[in-house]
Amino acid sequence: MLVFSFVALLLVSSSWAEEEVSTLEELSVSQLLERANRNRNPGPDEPTLIGGDIAIKSEADRNADPCTARGCLWLKYTDGKVYIPYYIANHYSSRERSIITRGLESFSSVSCIRFRPYQSGDHEWLSIESRDGCWSYVGRQGGGQTVSLARSGCLYHGTVQHELLHALGFNHEQTRSDRDNHIMVYWDNIIDGMEYNFYKIDTLNQGTAYDYNSVMQYEKYAFSKNNLPTMVPIPNNNVAFGTATQMSQNDIVRLNRLYQC
Description:
By secondary structure, the protein is an alpha/beta fold. The chain has helices spanning 2-25, 29-37, 66-69, 94-105, 157-168, 249-258; strands spanning 48-50, 54-56, 82-88, 113-117, 124-129, 134-137, 143-149, 183-185, 231-233. The radius of gyration is 19 Å and the shape is globular. It starts with a helix and ends with a helix.
């Protein structure tokens, strides 16, 4: 009887866990990132984050786009492919590794980007680790650079793609240089001290239109201090945005143009 009760409890617990995962997978990438990074308690070795999930090395980088300020692209080989070494920390389970690997491989079918496992002698690579929250540096930094995908909250296909797009050189859509033509920012609704997350950046937009469906677009209540919108689309404020669960077609076009695939 005791064994039966224990097995029943395991089945119920498993059902609850699967239901929670299913529910979370229905959330947009923006919602998942906000949820995962909401209660971060970074240690002394964790970088400063801007925009919720973008790591910077110094305050001087806060409003600079590395792709326009110093160049941030990963190198292209003579065969036209961009090979980016990666290392996945061994603290992930096989299921978690498969989620990360699927996100890495999703780029090869739509672009010239090829993520490949780290090899001895590689001078620059992505070190994918479960740190505090979901975050990445923007663009190639040189040497090993961390992409944090915390085991708790970050292991979803869309969030993996989002952080990898940062590592490839992309900022958030709402910080685009032409943002004011498409998004109205309500500064009074933003959490005090978080306004810099909405400052525009001199971005490389690759001649593409503003994309409300981009996996890099945050949702309308991002960084809200009063449950009122911090962003509203213009001129049509009924347009849905910040709802992406994976890369949009425009994200893919922009990636291919940036790397001249």
